[in-house]
Structures are given as structure tokens and as C-alpha cells.
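Weekend entry, working from home. Most of the wet-lab plans are on hold until the incubator is repaired, so I used the time to fold the two sequences that have been sitting in the queue since the last round of cloning. Logging both here for the record. First:
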Amino acid sequence: MAKRKTKRNQKAQTPAWWNAMISRREAGQRLAALATGAAMLPFASILTGCGEEVELDALELQQKQGWQVGADGENLDFKDEQTRDSLGQAWENYADPAALMVAYEPKNYRWKPFKVTTLVQSLSQETLRKQVKPVLSDAMKTAYARGLGMREIIQKMDNPSSTMIIADLHGEESVAFGAALADVANVVIGFDNWPHPQGVVPAHRTLGAMMYYAREVSVKTEEKLSWDAPAVILLDNHRLGEYTDEWDVFDNRYVAKVPSAPSLASYKVSRVLYVIPDRDTKNELDDLNDDFVYYKEKNISVDLLPMSDFKPAVAAAMATSASAKTSADSMIAAYTGSDSAIAKAMTAPAQKDTVVATPASTRTVYHYGGGPSYWPIFFGNYNTPSTIRRPGGYRAPSQGPSKPEYKPERRPTLFSSRTVGSQTSGVGKQKPTGFGRVSANVNSDGNVTRVRQSRNYSSTGTSRASRSTSTSSSSRSSRSYRSSSSKSSSSRSSSGRSGSFGRSRSSSSS
């Protein structure tokens, strides 16, 4: 397939922040000043034999002294590395942060203020650019297939622009999910940290996924996306990961930023679909609690949408009873407007997967409920108007997913009432004390010799209300993405870091 050049690629310009990167020498001078000031605070500075120990913001430290600060020489683990992108073409152009930023630019200007470019900007570091590679995992393939199922739903919505989708999955899976929707929704990235070889959050996996799908997202956005399409906000549910106080752990956690209720109201958005991994998840993550409660107070509905409700036909075949089979056939006929569709549905194997042609290949679609005829159940569950009319004698299939019981309720979290500035901006959240911060040993030259989690913050970032039975598997997932050169991972507590759901300090003792 010949390499395609789009106007979006041709418009890529070197951003201002590229030319304003702080030099290593200047960074050392600033850190020395920070160390001097911090020495005046007993709780923030400890005199050691090898220099001053000061507490610093993790991201600012990386931006000033390099993304690998405290772990120079360690490499990122790029399992599932790919040599070509999702369209089967060369990916190296998207190692340029300017090109990658343009590829993930929302088409509708109203969503552009909510795009968080921090992770993309990390590619301004040459040593990181040389390490980052596109990745494609089995989990990403599944997330993409489920995204294709969600794409079908959006295409049948009567007024899709009234809905905003927030995908809160593992970072790489959120990117894959968003890529599948890129021709029907504005993809808005929300990744607000940098990778680190010892990072709590495996941000390099998210970055690799962005590079893998960059060209596909760019082509779909430019050539197929309508201006009034809805938005899908991509988040990484590793961002509040749990971990212990160790020298070889770097706290690159961050707080999610989403559009405010007044902003959504001004865009006539009346519904938010919060996409979660599965039904074990009962609530939004803690840093979104204030936002979601405010949505509800402003009459913007918020519903949970488990990705596990999207399944291949082989895993959840059409109902076996004659009555259910008839109902399924009538729905297919209503969708296609064709009598021949009924005959085809009645003779075709019920277990066969649905596939669609994508720019790169033919891919399986994971449908809501497990089959192409279950879409009316979605619109019934979520009370969403559809452009497709149901036949008069419609009866729902005997089996199908139900909408999870949920409504946003205010609860005490580490992130409660930490928004600064105007509520209309949807940005400006403050980190809790010690969250996303590290204790660093700074020598007399102003250089960091080693870092660890801030002493002022315990290991947890999510309340008990947000915990799920998948906590342990999420912890294992997060730990498996640590640097391949890490030497002490085997000695860590099995509770380690939770990729998705931990506990807040207020509930950890109960």
C-alpha cells in the first residue's frame, strides 16, 4: 500500500514548546535553587551523606533533567513491538512529536482545548525517541474490535453529538478503542505524564499505541469524520496506580482532566457514557468523582458502559429458541430493510463472527450483546434515540446485557474539591499532597543522583468505592510493564501497584 500523505501531515509545524526546552545546564541550576529552598523545610529536606533530599514534582523534574532522571541507562520494555503501523506502513514519522500531535488533533475546534499533549511532548527528548516503538497487544486487538462495535452504535444514534464518551481503560487499550471510532468521533487524548523506566504508570505503552494507530486516526479524521461528530476522551486507568515507598519506583501518576459541565451544556451534550473494562467496576475513578457529580447536578446523565458487554458472535450466539430467533431475524430485517436478510440470517451459521473491512485488513467486530441484532437493546438500556425504527411486532432477544446500576454520588476522596480556576474550563485540577511527586537526592552540582516516591504520600490513589475484583490482575499488568532492566521487582509486595483500582488513604485502614 502506497504511503499516503494527508493535509494534516503537511501542516505539522514545530510547536513553540519544542524550541523552549530547558537545557540540562539550566535545569541543574534550577534544581540547585530548589534544593536550597527546600532545605529550609524540615519535612521536605533531609540532609544525607550524598547530598540534599528534596521533594519535587515528578513531571517537572523529568522536563528539567530528562525523562530517565534517576534511572539513566535503564531501558523501557517494549513487549509486542511492531515494525509497521496499523495501515501496514512505516511509522517513524510519528516519532516526531509535532507529527504525532497533528495526527491526534480533534476535527471540531470545540474539543481542542481538552486535548492533553503532555505525553506526546515527551518525544522531544531524543533518547526517548530512540527507544519508543509502536506496540500491538492482544488486549489492544480486543479493544479495537469492541470499538468497532461501539462505532456501529454511534452510527445508529439519532443525535450522536449530544453524547460524550470517556474511555477509561488501560492506556494502550483506550488508544485502540479510540482508533476504531476515529471516523465517527473526535478522538481527544488525555494522557498527562511522561514515561519513566521505573514509572508507576506504563506510559510508554500508551505512547507506543498512539504511534501504531497515528496514521489511521489521521486519515479517518481528515477524510471521513463529520464536523459535528461526538467526542471520545481517552484516559489511562493506570494513572492512580498503587505502589510502595521504594527507591526504584518513580511516581509518574497524574489526575485526569475532562470537560466541565458548563462546557458540555454549551455544546448541547446531555449524556456521558463512561467506558469501563467490565462489570466488576462499580464506580468512576476517584479523580472523576467531582466532575461526574457536577454533571448530574447540571442534568447531564452519566452511565457506565462495560466493554465486556461487547462480544464476538461466536462467544454469544443468537438465541437458540424459535421465538428469540424470530425476533433476531425481524431486527436484522428492520436494520437492512431487506426480506432477503431474513432468509440469509435463517440459513447462515449463528456462530459466525461479523467482520468489517478496515484500511489495513479485515477485523472482527465485537457487537453489543454478542451479535449484530442486539443493538436495539443498547438503545433501550441507555434510553438513547436511534435513527433505525423497530418493527411493530418487535420482541427483545431472550438474552442480552442490562445497563449497570449506577449514579454519581459524592464521596470523600484525595481529589475532592481540588479544581482551581473557572469551572467552565474543565482543566486546572490540583494533585493531592505528595501525589505525582518524588524525593530526589540532589548533589552539590544540582544534579539528581536518585529518586523515589515522596515521603509525604502513602501508596494509594483510589477509594474503596472504586475497587473491583480485578485489582490484583491490574497490579500484575502494571508491574509487568516495568523496565526490563529493573533488578528488584521480584522483592516487591504482591499488592504492589494497582493498574486501575487501589484505595484512598481515608479508606486504607478500614
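Second, folded right after the first finished:
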Amino acid sequence: MKGESQIHQEEINKQQNKAAHPYPLQRRRGNTATKSPGGNKDIFEVKEFADGTISRSHVSAVVKAAVKLGQRNKKQKSNLFEGDGKSINVQIGGIKIPKESRSHTLKCTLPHEVCNGSLGVALFVKDLSKDFKQDHEPTVHHYNELLSSNNSKSLVSEVIPLRGLKSEYQTFELKRRLSNKYDKFLADKRILHRLPLGKFFYNKRKIPIPVDMESKNLNEELKQALHTSILPLNHKGMSSILTVGSTAMKMEDVVDNVMKFIEIIKVKYPGGWKNVRSLHIKTESSPSIPLHVSTISG
């Protein structure tokens, strides 16, 4: 029988396999490309930034284009960044496959909170007792008190003990509902790989962010987690997607997050910037818009 840690990792791998690949580009006149989603012909300039220095104006233009395309078939709004929040993502593709034999994730702490705040945050916590038959309400009470004493109660909408997760969300449908219930999920790092989550969490890029519930500065620990997004990585060479914001956010805040993500991958992405084949911006309903495409051969 597969362990929970193995299942957790397999779900990350499945999410990477299903990651949307860049919309096919047709090269024309050197550095321009044509996209034709839904019969619409839009010209996007495909640029290469060999040194990783991508201008803020270029990032802003690409983010705005992705949001606009995502709303093309919907009722037009006066402000592209108002209304129901839909995720805005950065898709990254590498040139050479990392040598690591196992998949892992890259934590990216961004300047602005990436969830739109309309649904709130759930926190998975460690049970106080190992007895499975023990009522988990004392655990909920304990951690709510801990949050209150650290001026952090407003940061978390619901505390869910591991035992409560296992007993109350056993079916796929219940797990799907839970994944839709909150914008973001945090988890005590001591139980992160024991969480019996379904594919819905990974498909929606709602992988729980690990937090240290024993931190001496719990408030800061939680705030940092709310500004963190997860980039799944593996050794199979697939592209990966990280959420950098939502359409409910101000455009400048989304751009800030993208700029910070670029700085992070220069240092933490396997092989650094030289190993980045492409960066694309996409929303839940838009094609992938190229932000950077490298011409370096593999």
C-alpha cells in the first residue's frame, strides 16, 4: 500500500503532467509570433532576455494582455482587475532536466498576498493526541487560542486537525468541496506529507504552504506563508506553473509579484536563469502569453 507521503508526491507529479503548455506560436519576421485562440489573431512580440533583466513595462503589458484575453468572451468590465478573482499564473519551462531523481517544490515568497481574500484561509494542524478515537475539538480550541495569543486569529478562517481532515473529508467529493471552500491552505510542517488530499488541491494549485507552528513569532510566520506560492519541480522536464496573483488584485501588485518571482528563479531554479527555456503568463481562461523565450539549445 502506498504511503501518504508517496501519494502526496504523486499528486504533485500529476499536476505537472497536466500543466498547460504554451499556446503554439507561429514565428514571423524574426521576433514576433502569432496566436490565434478561438479564431482571434493577436500579434505578441516574443522576446529573449539573456541576462534575465526583464523590464517592468514588458511584464505589465504581458500580464494585462493575458487578463484581457481571458475576459474576451465575457462581459467587458471597466477595470480588468475588478470582479471575481481568477488566478494569474506564471508558467516556466526549463532547458535541461534537473539531475535530482525525486520531485520537489520551490517556495516563492512574494511582495503581495496571492489569494484574493474573498474565501479565506484554512490551516491544517497536528493532533494533540495520537488516539484516533479522541475528539478533535480540543485540538481546534488549542490552536485557536494559540492564534489569538499571537494576534493571528484574523489570518486564519478555520483550523482543521489532521484527524478531522481524515474523518470528515473521506470522499473525493468532500475533498473537492474543501478545495473550493478556501483561497489558500496552510499546514503545520510536521504533518505536511501526511495530509490525505485529493487531486483537486493540486489541479487548482492549492498545495498547502508549510508553516512552523512552534515559531516564536507565529504572526510573522503566518503572514509570510500567505505571501508564499509553491512551484512544483521534477526531473521529467515538464513545465511548471506558479500562481502570482488574481484578477481581483491591483495590476501593479501582480506585476510586483512577477518581478520578484523572476529574481527568485535566477537564484533558486535548477541551473539558474540560463536553464530557463520560457516564461509565460496565463489566467484560468486565457492562452499562455510569452514573457521570455530562450533560443539556447539544450
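Plan for Monday: verify the second prediction. Residues 15-41 have pLDDT under 50 and may be disordered.
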